[in-house]
Design goal:
Length: 217
């Protein structure tokens, strides 16, 4: 019996990620094209599955989960293989290092970018809802810039991807954060700029970007 997979959410860095992972893995999905903070959370029944009032959200025959990095990791664990989104086994050094870098990207970069998003003025920010906070924005930008130097160090000396020569889950998470930095006119230290441009050529990224276009909401 074939598994049905559903993604809720469109139009943001976080909603891009599960779609990108599914596309890299060659898996289809039903897409509930709802924007954050919209009536779609009620209309599509998401509010019954999650009271977080957030997108993305993912459901299949086994799980109902909402954190973008958790969804990507689950999909790679379940469906990844030697040549696509390969995952090292739990308990190995490779898995520990992957998780270290994944949590770093999500807590030290992604979460700080969301601080900018919450408090910046429209169209890039949500100050109308969450309040204007220029000092917090400046501090968050400087914070992220420092963390980008650490991420740049992972790629210095030649590896194509964060954990070596194969595109993996942490690349998907990091590259999506780099796009988000560019939205805020932040400079990417090399080799991150070149790395981001190379990843943006992936067909999986381009299809996911098209599917995630908020004009389809
Ligand atoms: N840590 C979560 C963040 C999810 C999140 O904050 N999503 C935003 C859209 S990018 C949202 O739904 N925001 C609604 C709100 O906070 O008002 C993830 O990575 O999935």
């Amino acid at each position: 019996m074939s598994t049905s997979r559903t993604i809720w959410g469109i139009g943001t860095t976080r909603t891009l990620r599960p779609q990108w992972a599914l596309i890299e893995l060659g898996l289809d999905y039903d897409h509930k094209k709802i924007l954050p903070r919209g009536s779609g959370i009620e209309n599509t029944g998401l509010v019954v599955l999650s009271q977080r009032h957030k997108v993305p959200f993912y459901q299949d025959d086994r799980v109902q989960i909402g954190e973008s990095a958790a969804i990507v990791t689950y999909l790679a664990d379940r469906y990844g293989g030697k040549n696509v989104l390969a995952m090292p086994a739990p308990g190995t050094e490779e898995r520990a290092v992957l998780q270290d870098k994944t949590f770093f990207v999500m807590t030290e970069i992604d979460a700080r970018l969301y601080t900018i998003r919450l408090h910046a003025d429209p169209p890039l920010g949500l100050s109308a809802t969450y309040g204007s906070a220029p000092v917090a924005i400046d501090a968050a930008k400087q914070y992220v810039e420092r963390q980008l130097h650490e991420a740049a160090r992972w790629l210095t000396g030649g590896p194509q991807y964060v954990t070596g020569e194969q595109f993996g889950t942490v690349d998907l998470l990091l590259a999506s954060c780099l796009d988000w930095c560019l939205d805020y006119q932040m400079e990417l230290p090399e080799p991150l700029g070149e790395y981001r441009d190379r990843i943006a050529l992936r067909p999986g990224y381009q299809t996911a970007m098209a599917n995630n276009d908020p004009s389809h909401a």
